[in-house]
From TrEMBL:
<feature type="domain" description="TRUD">
    <location>
        <begin position="155"/>
        <end position="308"/>
    </location>
</feature>
<dbReference type="InterPro" id="IPR001656">
    <property type="entry name" value="PsdUridine_synth_TruD"/>
</dbReference>
<keyword id="KW-0819">tRNA processing</keyword>
<protein>
    <recommendedName>
        <fullName>tRNA pseudouridine synthase D</fullName>
        <ecNumber>5.4.99.27</ecNumber>
    </recommendedName>
</protein>
<dbReference type="InterPro" id="IPR011760">
    <property type="entry name" value="PsdUridine_synth_TruD_insert"/>
</dbReference>
<dbReference type="Pfam" id="PF01142">
    <property type="entry name" value="TruD"/>
</dbReference>
<dbReference type="InterPro" id="IPR042214">
    <property type="entry name" value="TruD_catalytic"/>
</dbReference>
<comment type="function">
    <text>Responsible for synthesis of pseudouridine from uracil-13 in transfer RNAs.</text>
</comment>
<dbReference type="InterPro" id="IPR020119">
    <property type="entry name" value="PsdUridine_synth_TruD_CS"/>
</dbReference>
<keyword id="KW-0413">Isomerase</keyword>
<dbReference type="InterPro" id="IPR020103">
    <property type="entry name" value="PsdUridine_synth_cat_dom_sf"/>
</dbReference>
<comment type="similarity">
    <text>Belongs to the pseudouridine synthase TruD family.</text>
</comment>
<dbReference type="InterPro" id="IPR050170">
    <property type="entry name" value="TruD_pseudoU_synthase"/>
</dbReference>
<feature type="active site" description="Nucleophile">
    <location>
        <position position="78"/>
    </location>
</feature>
<dbReference type="InterPro" id="IPR043165">
    <property type="entry name" value="TruD_insert_sf"/>
</dbReference>
Length: 342
């Protein structure tokens, strides 16, 4: 799905393969704080391979003999990857289990452990560190490097990645069908469907800003998002200071993650077609609260290396909620080509 949404800087400059094997897609979660050392929540920093976050959560719940809802984590991590992330397990009044059972034949490694007073919540982590290997690269290295340099300085459109919509868009199709039929689904499935619908609306509004060429510019009436923060404010008048801060990457326009609003969200409604408006109405009726997401994704500590074996190695940090595939999609047409393991 990485050609579904318009690029900000023209067509892809070539093609490449991602996720040839899990080790080609390494993600390290950066929590941004240390467990306090006391409390009833056991924090585990785990490395997983070829497992979804939900699968690992359920495995932890089984070992700890607790409900999956007692387990917290910051975000969903890829299955076809090697990922490191924190989990919290509420163990009030319970004996701590033998966590070595996690490592028995599952490909899971326990990297660190601590205790904290609060359960982990979605999106509370600071960032994710990505180390990627792109294979079968077919692109002019000089042209690609020029675009990478621009992307490092100016960022890319902050699209939700293909993972949010499922393989070949399957989750989004199921979500639309659920919206039409109104059938009851599990709590996890409901959350998955609402997230896919919400992300689809956001990407559509962002795509319109990309087509207009003002996705990284603050316009009158925009919501301004502060870099590295969830803070935001409404910009009624675009001052010179706002322009300079946006050019420096300190501020970016924010677009709505749809839900119930206490006030007018303004311009985004005017760029939506009937299908998008129907989805917005459904999201509001589902009880979601309006939130905001930056239209721009700025990588930190972004580096790359072209190798003699035809691979491209990339390293970068993205804020919580940022997708590596959104960064890659700005310069390359990529495909997933996982090796079957026996």
């Amino acid at each position: 799905m990485n050609d579904t949404w318009p690029r900000a800087r023209g067509p892809a400059l070539g093609t490449a393969t991602i996720r040839h094997c899990p080790e080609d897609f390494l993600v390290r979660e950066q929590l941004g704080f240390s467990p306090s050392g006391d409390g009833e929540h056991c924090f585990l920093y785990l490395r997983k391979r070829n497992l979804t976050t939900s699968e690992l959560r359920d495995f932890i719940a089984d070992i700890a003999a607790v409900s999956p809802v007692s387990i917290g984590y910051c975000g969903m991590k890829d299955r076809n990857a090697v990922t490191e992330q924190w989990f919290s397990i509420g163990l009030a009044g319970r004996t701590e289990p033998d966590w070595s059972r996690l490592e028995a034949g599952t490909g899971v490694e326990l990297l660190a452990k601590g205790w904290h007073r609060r359960k982990l919540r979605r999106g509370v982590h600071q960032a994710n560190r990505f180390s990627l290997v792109l294979r079968n690269l077919d692109a002019d290295h000089s042209a690609l490097e020029k675009r990478l340099l621009v992307m490092r300085e100016e960022g890319v459109p902050n699209y939700f990645g293909e993972q949010r919509f499922g393989r070949n868009g399957s989750t989004l199709r199921q979500a639309r069908e659920w919206m039409r039929r109104g059938r009851r689904v599990s709590r996890d499935r409901r959350s998955l469907y609402l997230s896919a619908l919400r992300a689809w609306v956001f990407n559509g509004v962002l795509a319109q800003r990309v087509r207009q060429g003002d996705w990284n510019l603050v316009l009158p009436g925009d919501r301004c998002m502060l870099r590295g923060s969830r803070s935001h404010f409404c910009c009624d008048t675009v001052t010179e200071d706002i322009v300079l801060r946006a050019a420096a990457g300190d501020l970016s326009p924010g677009l709505p993650l749809w839900g119930q609003a206490s006030g007018d969200v303004g311009e985004p409604l005017t760029v939506m077609d009937e299908e998008a408006l129907a989805v917005c109405e459904f999201l509001t009726s589902a009880g979601l609260t309006l939130a905001w997401r930056s239209a721009r994704l700025l990588p930190d500590d972004f580096s790359w290396q072209f190798c003699d074996d035809g691979t491209l190695h990339l390293g970068f940090d993205l804020v919580a909620g940022g997708y590596a595939t959104a960064l890659l999609g700005e310069c390359l047409q990529f495909k997933n080509e996982a090796v079957k393991e026996h």
